[in-house]
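Hi R.,

Here's the chain you asked about this morning:
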Amino acid sequence: MKLFATLCLVFTTLLAVAQPRVAAFVSAERAFAQKALETTTKTAFLTYMADSAIVFVNGKPAPAKPYWEQAPESPAKLIWGPAVADASRSGDMGYTTGPWYVEVDGKRVAHGHYNTVWSTQRPDNRLRFLIDAGVQHPAPSNERIPDSVLLTAIKSQASSDKINDLLRLELQLADQILARGAAPAYLPYLSQEARLYRPNQFPFVSAPAIRQLLLTELPLRFKPIDGQVALSGDLGYVYGLYQSGQSREGGYLRIWKHEIGNGWRLVLEVLNETSKTP
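And the predicted structure, written out as tokens:
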């Protein structure tokens, strides 16, 4: 009984420590979304982006600041909110993901899921987003923005790894996808809480659904560009480009977590496809 009580105390303590870190990123995301409602989507993005932030333009990663500075104002309202969130042990990096929809004159005209990576920015430690990527999909049966946020059940472990270590892992995965196919290459790297996002499809969040997806996907050629790792070396992201012959190309975002007992595991992947329409 003493051992059980001790384990419960340790778990409760870890959860109590983790929640404030995650809560900061959830609050930042909600404030970001509220700013868009009160002003415009353009104003909100320019307010909450880091100077080096990346967004996806026609499926490919691009600097966010010049894109949004040149973007015209729109009367459409982009409405979103976090459903899942996690944060690094050091508290300097976190991410949220959840549903979004676009409303024009009170009518919802588009739906999807977003994914945002956040970081504290020096010298004032303000939270600003580093990268934002999402997918569009059909209208869900429940269009409500969630009130509560799901926190990860898998704990992370600090490491001394930096972005170059994560980029090497990305290159290993890219090579194995081409050599072995999608499912055999991905499955050893996936977290038990992995989430995969594909254009025009609802998020794949269960192990059977993810496995079935990977078994049907053709291998893609991935080329990582850059990313960042938290100070505690337990959370990081990489973005880049992908291509399949001449038929498909686009950009991708992957979020990685250094899990206790497992090392780096892929917790989230987004593919954004480039439209060939002129």
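The helical segments are 2-38, 41-48, 64-70, 163-180, 182-186, 207-216.

Let me know if you need anything else.
M.
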